[in-house]
Amino acid sequence: MFWIDVLSSYLFALKYTVYILAIILLISGIDDLFIDICYWLRFVYRKLFVYRKHPETHYQDLQQADEQAFAIMVPAWQEHGVVGPMAELAATTLDYENYHIFVGTYPNDPETQAEVDEVCARFPNVHKVVCAKPGPTSKADCLNNVIAAIFQFEQQANFAFAGFILHDAEDVLSAMELRLFNHLVARKDLIQLPVYPFARRWTDFTSGHYLDEFAELHGKDVPIREALVGQVPSAGVGTCFSRRAVELLIKEGDGIAFDVQSLTEDYDIGIRLQQHGMEEIFVRFPVVTQDHQRQHVSLSGKSLKQSSVICIREYFPDTFHTAVRQKSRWIIGIVFQGFKNHSWSSNKKLNYFLWRDRKGGLTNLVGFVAVLIFTQLGLLWLIQHLVDDPYYFLSIYGDEKWLALLLIINGALLLNRMCQRFIFVSAYYGFAQGFLSLPRMIWGNVINFFANVRALRQVLEMGDARRVAWDKTSHDFPHIGEERSTRRPLGEILLDQGALSEQDLAQALKMKPIGQRLGRYLLQQNILTPEAIGRAVAEQAGVSYQAVAITKLDESLFPTLSKGLAWRYGVFPLLKDKDATIVLASEQYLSPVSLAAIARKMQQRVRYIVVNPGAVSYLLKRHYSQFDGEMAPPANMDLTPVQTEQAWQVYLSRQWPLAEVLAETCEIAPQVMNQLLIGFEKSELRFPDYLLDKGVIAPESLSQAIALQQQRQLPWSQVIAQWGSFRV
């Protein structure tokens, strides 16, 4: 029969394809087995000898070092709806304060720019950078614009960042991430954290195969690469570069740090730094807190330590098309552009890992074809055993013992691959995901095959791997519970309280100076009372309100708060609770991160309340500066005791911090002022002298700002004289 002849001829041709595939799979399998052996030998050795002599660093040790400044670089093309939640989550969860986020936007992406503007208005450590060229350019080009803006900011604030951190807008940062970078950046030039994707539904094999691959890659492969070669490929997120590294890259690139034609600029940089002898490290640092121990379930299969490492979390594509697009970009950057840019090095060990990086261009194709072929042969074998008097097509392969042995070895290597995948996925995600990772290996093979085909087609069409355009994938930002709810604007709260009409609010927002706070403007214009503003701020912050009685303060608490700490956060110790918690007074919202930092530095439990406007500013000047203002409201025969107290509240509300005046007059940007206050914490100078010492403002401009501050701070006699004109 004709179809039998055709099938026989096809299977005969397939026979030699099987030979080639089996040999390639054997080589690749032995290669992977070598990494497995290295990992487990190193694991046992460190367990038996290293950790017994050198105890592991505890996460609380990271909190002892002074905070160095870090710049977080976030390229953002069409990231509206993502940048805001990322910045808010960082501000409320990062156990670190000395950092700035620089978001790279594009002139033709107004939606993302508008969202970043809103974020910048709420967080003084977030900066918007607008790239010179319309988007989308390459991620590297965006990062180069961001770095230029960072250096410009350093000149304005007269300080230098110790590290530069790569992140994407959809990243969820670990609370201790910057603490770990702070601990290592003086000794290491590239620090990479592991990436663990968020798991979606169990049926979502597309996004699920990412967590399988990253769990094994960042659990085993990259740590061994660092141990054997000292070279770490950046993942593009969770990567910290030392200042030395960035300056070297800029010098080497004639003023440009990142290769604008590279689709995987992060991978490229890891190799470039290693070639210059820079120190690179991949860090798996567990943070096992009491909460983590309480929530840990032993039967889940998760490792207590491995599942608590400082890492980057994010969602990866969950559709076949977007996954293929993303992975094809990685393949072009690592396999094709990587080979064109770096070829091979003089370091044989590094060449071995470069071969491992690039073999994916072959094994992605081979693995998929092998699945198809062995599926066909398996079906033929099944037919031969189930059908009466079948055609024995598999006899074409004959009794070739070497092929049978080869297939047995490959089968054993495949079984080992499945075991390794199960172990590393289960360690972080648990047994359920570990078992799901096994069928997902097949689906991952399919995605990698089509990504490889797409990458190859793009390179052939363009004629040069370096000319392939940046094909960015869209991102999701996870919902992290109610604690992420945005604080309500002060104007909205005043409307709800009936303190303002919509017309009054619109007029105030229109008329107030750009850098001036709404509450301060409403007080200055005598539109609202100090108490109304204070209660609205307290509601916004989610804490209680209290009018401070200046004469009834507990002076024994004053020494517990240093001058630098008080000025930096704008707080003052009021009283001590029954449980020995110190209650701090503040005129504005304090983030949980700031409150934790204050508690750690004071070595006391603390909480805070919002007090009447101007009270903290007055107390700070009274106790930490040379200030000869009134200490208590002097008696006045023309006013009743109640009126005297009301007049005193008006007097306090006119105490303007110099930082606010400078922001209003645009002499110092809020982002720069925020950084200056961090540095001022350890300075012995008065704040005006500190500003002059840092060279961030001219003496004439400072004198004008101080004169404006004094002009607005009404003396007690003037408050009494104008008493009838104030709203109380």
Q: Can you characterise this structure?
A:
With 728 residues, this protein is an alpha/beta fold. Among the domains are: 34-352, Alpha-Beta Complex (Spore Coat Polysaccharide Biosynthesis Protein SpsA, Chain A), CATH 3.90.550; 490-633, Type II secretion system, protein E, N-terminal domain (GMP Synthetase, Chain A, domain 3), CATH 3.30.300. It has helices spanning 2-53, 83-93, 110-122, 139-157, 177-184, 205-229, 243-252, 265-275, 290-295, 320-342, 348-358, 360-386, 401-429, 431-462, 490-496, 502-511, 518-524, 530-541, 563-569, 592-602, 615-624, 641-653, 658-664, 670-680, 687-694, 699-712, 716-721, and strands at 70-75, 99-105, 126-130, 163-166, 190-192, 239-242, 280-282, 545-546, 571-576, 582-586, 606-611. The strands form two sheets. Strands 3-2-1-4-6-5-7 form a seven-stranded mixed beta sheet, sandwiched between helices. A four-stranded mixed beta sheet has the order 8-11-10-9. It is elongated and about 120 Å long. The relative contact order is 0.09.
